Amino acid sequence: MMIRFTMLLFIICLQQATAQQVPIPLYETHVPNARQVPADYQEQTDADGLITRITQPALIPFFPEEQTATGTAILIFPGGGYRLLSLAACEEIAKALNKEGIAAFIVKYRLPNDTIMINRSIGPLQDAQAAIRLVRKRAAEWGIDPKKVGMMGLSAGGHLVSMEGTQQNRVVISNEEKSNLRPDFMALLYPVIIYDPAIPRTRENLIGKQPSPELLNLYSTDKHVTATTPPTFMVHAADDDVIPVKNTLSFFDALLKANVKAEMHILQSGGHGFALTDAGSKDNWFRMFRSWLTENGF
């Protein structure tokens, strides 16, 4: 009898562990804003785990132990300059969040590409909105408080999250049920904020080489911060030579002017793309982030 019970418990644990690795499609039927995908356009993952050519966006779930779950969930958006997705840092952060009782979902979003999209400039934002809609829709099933769903973005993923947080009324998906698409809080790690010549590749990948002044303004998210922008935690390294630290400084200044709850940490060193254990970051930012979540009721 004991052997049978032990085997049953093992199978349940194995099923739960396996389920955490199974991507959950963002869309039940057709993917919006999509062209017919060419036969040779297939998702690719290289030896370093960098993903390109995504046509089926999905959530990759990481759930905490049930007895430690807090009800808070964070959707994590990888960076990669809107050219690829780098998941390694996100997985490290997701597992650390689980240890704190927080559910995490890495969002494998589509990368802007005229080959597969009718309007590439809104493709990633559509997937961000679909992701938070799906998590709130299944919140009860996953043990999540729908009023404690935040977003975290790394690098270009930070731009995407800041766009979702500052332009909540710009709905680019079908939302007949009028789901709440506003994240309850944001965490931005070395984010792209300002669309200027200093970061041409990220800008060009999303809105082209010669965008209009109106489009540049729309995608410079520091220009759209209002009193309804969610509470925001930000971290950036002063020696970041990929995304200048002025991006974070500008967004933080806009948050202060709008009286939005915000906390910013500028690390002396750390470069670009750090997670928890890279030289320079020393995981201090994560401990401060966890304290900030507690302070704000998440």
From TrEMBL:
GO terms for molecular function: hydrolase activity. Residues 1-19 form the signal peptide. The keyword Signal applies. Residues 63-254 form the BD-FAE-like domain. Keywords: Hydrolase, Signal. Gene3D superfamilies: alpha/beta hydrolase (3.40.50.1820). InterPro entries: AB_hydrolase_fold, BD-FAE-like_dom, GDXG_lipolytic_enzyme. It holds the Pfam family BD-FAE. PANTHER family: AB HYDROLASE SUPERFAMILY PROTEIN C4A8.06C, PEPTIDASE S9 PROLYL OLIGOPEPTIDASE CATALYTIC DOMAIN-CONTAINING PROTEIN. This is Acetyl esterase/lipase. It comes from Chitinophaga niabensis. The lineage of its organism: Bacteria, Pseudomonadati, Bacteroidota, Chitinophagia, Chitinophagales.
